[in-house]
Task: structure prediction
Amino acid sequence: MRAVRFLRTAADDRVSRLDAYNAAVSGLAANRDCPEPRRSVNEAYLRAMRAPAEFALHIGDWNADLSRSDALLDACAGTREFHATAVARDCAKQRRFNDIVRKRIVQGTTQ
Result:
């Protein structure tokens, strides 16, 4: 449950990018104690939150984080335990949002 608290902070648009990054990193560390399949779902969201912070701060590998998040979200949307649930729908929605984030980042790097 600690991972989810860090995720909420990382996803909060009112926090600085550094605070979002630190919350995502702490959330990933706390997430190690979560059981599957929840661990993978948490990781997907935490990496999705860390990626734009990495880009803004010029640290880490935002593209690798988004790619890992994409793979985990795709798996989540197809996980038997989550079939036809809000979790699967939310994973699919976040996956689409990752595509938007990636496009915005790439546009920002090409200008």
